[in-house]
From TrEMBL:
Stored SUPFAM superfamilies: NAD(P)-binding Rossmann-fold domains
PANTHER family: NITROGEN METABOLIC REGULATION PROTEIN NMR-RELATED, OS05G0110300 PROTEIN
Family: Belongs to the NAD(P)-dependent epimerase/dehydratase family.
InterPro entries cross-referenced by the UniProt entry: NAD(P)-bd_dom, NAD(P)-bd_dom_sf, SARED1-like
A cellular component term, taken from the record's GO annotations: chloroplast
Organism: Rubroshorea leprosula
Domain NAD(P)-binding: 87-293
Listed CDD domains: SDR_a5 (cd05243)
Listed GO MF terms: oxidoreductase activity
One Pfam family in the UniProt entry: NAD_binding_10
Name this polypeptide is given: NAD(P)-binding domain-containing protein
Amino acid sequence: MAALTRLSLVFSAAPPPSSQRHNCGCVALSISIPLARKLPDSSTLSSRCSSSFSVPSQFRNNKGFRRARVVSASTAGLPPSTVLVTGAGGRTGQIVYRKLKERSDQFVARGLVRTEESKEKIGAADDVFVGDIRDAASVIPVIQGIDALIILTSAVPKMKPGLDPSKGERPEFYFEDGAYPEQVDWIGQKNQIDAAKAAEVKQIVLVGSMGGTNPNNPLNSIGNGNILVWKRKAEQYLADSGIPYTIIRAGGLQDKEGGIRELLIGKDDELLQTETRTIARADVAEVCIQALHYEEAKFKAFDLSSKPEGTGTPTKDFKALFPQITTRF
Ligand SMILES: NC(=O)c1ccc[n+]([C@@H]2O[C@H](COP(=O)([O-])OP(=O)(O)OC[C@H]3O[C@@H](n4cnc5c(N)ncnc54)[C@H](OP(=O)(O)O)[C@@H]3O)[C@@H](O)[C@H]2O)c1
């Protein structure tokens, strides 16, 4: 079987406002592409990502300010909460999982991955469970006893093999049978939400995608999957569930260092009309975790991107970030 690796596919979701735009359309999707040799995997990429946030005085040492640890004043002194991240073998999911493990004073981390291979990739610890979100029965046990759930599962389109770029051939994509967005992004997310509700989970953070306000968004035509439609349906289901939720609709995801850019909050895909439509996976991961700390992040849905590195002021103060969100859906 050919080795598969993930690349990001970027599509134009809105007409470029200026002729200088060359990376237009900040919504992108992961795809699996058959390769003869595997590219450096996402764990290599994410291990380069690091957070650099200021810390409260109790974590400073006498040599100055430490940059490694992010502690929220709102949870200091509380017992650690148990947090499950699903899609923990994915590129954003594994960053979230690693960050949760690093903050063991605040969190007891749990991960759900689809395969033993993914479990190995993230260290194969006992707190990583193997299960398939399309199968409600395999989701229920891992959700028992958790305080919060971070959903980072997603259908992933694959590129048909045999493409010859030298002939100018355009790539074609497909979803495997049973792994269409309807099954993964709708049924799979719904299974998680239902199980979380039954287990009285206190908060769900769901990472979705910008572009969902336009049914004709080009991402919907990939593999006839209507991926943004099904993602949106799951978001609506979560918002209607009664469980405190935070829905993060990310812009185009990039494997870049986190913590060094100013984050931008948006609504209704308005950020797609601007030049700032991308965000580092590490920043999305950090926002997922910070959302667990602040009441202001609950019952909110928002678009998320960032300014380019070197412009603006890197976001450090999440307590100030979440009140900027004005939208419940
Ligand atoms: N790519 C972008 O530019 C972009 C832009 C905006 C939003 N987003 C969204 O942001 C989120 C994170 O993206 P990402 O690129 O970091 O994710 P990713 O690497 O594609 O990870 C998706 C994860 O979902 C898991 N998964 C798929 N089907 C599953 C199933 N049936 N049961 C259990 N797990 C399953 C996959 O497991 P396996 O590894 O085992 O297959 C994979 O680990 C996704 O919702 C994505 O759609 C992406």
